[in-house]
Amino acid sequence: MGQIFRPRANSFARIALLGLALLIVLPFCIGFALVRSPYLTGVDDVPHQPVPFSHQHHVSGLGIDCRYCHTSVEHAAFAGIPPTETCMTCHSQIWTDAAVLEPVRKSWRTGQPLRWTRVYDLPDFVYFNHGIHVSHGIGCTTCHGPVGRMPLTRQATPLFMSWCLDCHRAPEKYVRPREHVFDPDWTPPQNQFAQGRQLVHEYQIRVGQLIHCSVCHR
Amino acid sequence: MSRDIEQRTDPERATVLRSDQDYASISRAISDSVLRPTSRGWWLGFCLSGLGVLIFIAAAGYLFYAGVGIWGVNTTVVWGFAIINYVWWIGIGNAGTLISAMLYLARQPWRTSINRFAEAMTIFAASIAGLFPILHLGRPYLFYWLAPYPSTMGVWPQFRSPLVWDMFAIATYIIVSVLFWYTGLIPDLATLRDRARSRAAQLVYGAFALGWRGSAAHWRHYERAYLILAALAVPLVVSVHSVVGYDFATALMPGWRSTLFAPYFVVGAMFSGFAMVIVITIALRAAFRLHAFVTPRHLDAMAKILLAASLIMGYAYGMEAFMAWYGTDADEWRQTVTTATGPYGPAYWGMLFCNVAVPQLCWSARIRRSIPALLVVAILVNIGMWLERYVIVVNILSQGFMPSQFRLYFPTVWDWATMLGSFALFLWFFFLFVRFVPMVPMHEVRKLAHDLGERS
């Protein structure tokens, strides 16, 4: 009776062992990378909008304050998307013939609101409150990125729960003085930690309670 | 195993293997059941149990589609057949490891012929048991949240819950059982490789034999590895079923909050597991004419273990009732009285009859060596142990603290389909096992023959 396996079976066996190890490890690595990739988080996605609204133009170019359009951000849970009326405060007078603004004018004529595509969409089992963050010194750009430099709005942060918790556990890394909350060009100072700790104390941010389930999952 | 220990162990040693067997006849008899063409009876059993597997898949599929409400569970009795069957199956699995590991450490020669299929039973039963905790989740697709992994949520499992310990216990148990079983298989796979005639069988068994040559160094490492695995498996099997006991014992429910549960569940598992091994042993012995390897001595020894376990179970039942009476907790005593006299009373008395009364027959050596009698006892014990879990899960839950919350549990057709489907799945696995794997460890039986030959 001849040999069942030839010498090259040794190589097959080693490759199979390696393959087996990879077969166990690789799915975890791929899964780990995939769920954190922009492919699944939507970071840097630029969704299609009915009107190519440019934050860059309105914020950096014209210097409009965030609250001019997102009026409820300081007091309500939902920051709000401005109604057509807000657009028309200016655009009934300027760029009245611009083709890109035709959907806005149509909305104004017909009373049908514009169907903006939501960029930051949390699941409905998460209760997020804009007002509480703004009033405790969390600036727009910390979570929404450099909106003032975005020609089209894109998602700047992954919105992972661990991303939320990172700040809720150590808000001093991100908190800024209230007067700079709506400053699109604010950058953390050299002494962010010292200043942040000071502000956490001053604004009475109750760090120990911020990671309880009931804070968001109501 | 050093020979001096073996020789002083057992004057009955010779009776664990019929004396007409030599190395060649052992290898031939056992490997033939794998290498011979498939018999018609096997196909019949395989297809029939396969139909049952389809029922299981259908029941699970409809469960995933429609939700856990298709079962009879309600807001009071939140655990029904799924947990009963989970505990029952994991208990069945227990005995395989005890046979292969504990009896190995105890140098019991009657372990030799039965350990392979007992371990297979463990793997299949534990795997089926492992399905139920997933099936019974309301959102089964999120079961992996039980595993500690660096998630984007930044949350981890709650390590204070016995249900999380369950996940670790079952996963470890299945992995270690498979490793232990496979380690024991390697020399036998090499035998199959060498005896196989077809190229495909040579390749497959040769690949799984991992180049086993049977050299002295191989055997030395093998024996050491097997011993270490056996020594690991015994505390594992004890802790696995203790954890299953903690599922109940860490709760506040009267009738569950008992410190007795861990050892009582372990012994109960051994009890039902050995009963199942007896059923399987008798079936395989008849179907594959294993009379040379499975002798009345094996049945006798297993029946004795059954008897010992039933005495401990009787003690545990008695102690539960006694402590309820002896203690000062009114709920505990009410629970005990209602268990015996309430709507689930018949299950309780049936449990006592099957688990405590019937096994007392095993005091008689004639019963222990009578195949039909032992078969009946073993089947009744398996029914009794199922009833025990039924009493613990459904009966206790149905009557907690608040009388306004008292509810009865009525299993639906889907409860039954899942349960019967799980039996079929077990049988189906077993048909595959007996077809492709030597059901008796040839190398260990050959060693037994060697030791016997030296003594005579």
Describe this structure in words.
The complex is a heterodimer of chains A (218) and B (456). Chain A contains eleven helices and no strands. With 218 residues, chain A is mostly helical. Chain A starts with 8 loop residues before the first helix and ends with a helix. Chain A has helices spanning 9-36, 38-41, 55-61, 66-69, 84-91, 102-110, 130-135, 140-144, 161-169, 192-202, 213-216. Chain A is 44% helix and 0% strand. Chain B is mainly α and 456 residues long. In chain B, helix 4 (81-105) packs antiparallel against helix 5, helix 5 (115-135) runs antiparallel to helix 15 and helix 10 (296-326) crosses helix 11 (330-341). Classes of the chains: A mainly alpha (218), B mainly alpha (456). At the A-B interface, helix 1 and helix 9 of A face helix 7 of B.
Secondary structure layout:
The complex is a heterodimer of chains A (218) and B (456).
Chain A: H1 9-36, H2 38-41, H3 55-61, H4 66-69, H5 84-91, H6 102-110, H7 130-135, H8 140-144, H9 161-169, H10 192-202, H11 213-216
Chain B: H1 3-9, H2 23-35, H3 40-66, H4 81-105, H5 115-135, H6 162-195, H7 199-208, H8 216-249, H9 261-287, H10 296-326, H11 330-341, H12 345-357, H13 365-369, H14 371-398, H15 413-436, H16 442-455
Question: Which key terms come to mind for this protein?
Answer:
heterodimer; A: 218 residues; mainly alpha; 0% strand; B: 456 residues; 16 helices; disordered N terminus
What sequence of helices (H) and strands (E) makes up the elements of chain B? HHHHHHHHHHHHHHHH
Low-confidence stretches of chain B: 1-9
Rg of chain B (CA only): 23 Å
Individual helix count of chain A: 11
Main beta-sheet annotation of chain A: none
Overall geometry of chain A comes to extended
Provide a count of the helices of chain B: 16
Question: Which pair of protein chains has the largest interface, and what are the residue counts?
Answer: A-B, 14 and 13 residues
N-C termini distance of chain A: 73 Å
> What is the total tally of β strands of chain A?
0
Give the integer mean of the pLDDT values of chain B: 91
Shape of chain B: globular
Percentage beta strand of chain A = under 5%
Helix coverage percent of chain B: over 70%
For the secondary structure, the number of strands of chain B is 0
